[in-house]
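call fold(seq) -> tokens
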Amino acid sequence: MKVLNLDLQRIAHDTFRITGSKVIYIDPFKVKDKDKADVVLLSHDHFDHLSREDLEKVCTPETRIVASPLCQEGLKGLQVKEIMFLAPGKKAKVDGIEIEAVPAYNTNKFSAPGQAFHPKEKPGVGFVIQMDGTRVYHTGDSDFIPEMRSIQCDIALLPVSGTYVMTAEEAAEAAAAIKPRIAIPMHYGAIVGSDADARKFKSLAKNCQVEIV
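ret:
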């Protein structure tokens, strides 16, 4: 669907195809059709974010990849034009698109006592992307973390499923802090979470327009 001046398509889970002057895929997973991405962004190395099967569907020898350093092993041998690794706080300009890697981690989601699914010590990332004058923030797999309060964006892509990421309630708190013009829920309907989580988020997020795509 058209969101501001960009076309945003949520493929599945937290996979987005964003089209403006370039075609960007974020965390391609469960991609049905072959496509040609100019730029691919990878937030971390879990199978539902770094999927070689899905990367093969969208990458060409002209594709550039920007990824968390956690993805180095999983990207070995992939035939693309360039692979760049960005730790949190680092920036790059790729095909005229400004990309900033920002922190993404858990504060209260644990696989075992004291063991977060996405620990702060490991450099999983979210991304702030500026293309065609519009800033899009994709949180990656994250809870509502203090660093989000300083992020400026027009469109925020926020997980709502809980378990490994923010719940709908926590995502609504994040939206209130970030203050995007438009918020889009993600991270539901594939591994965990359902359409009900997206609808709950929409009912709770009062300070911005919410689009379920």
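The chain has three helices and 16 strands.
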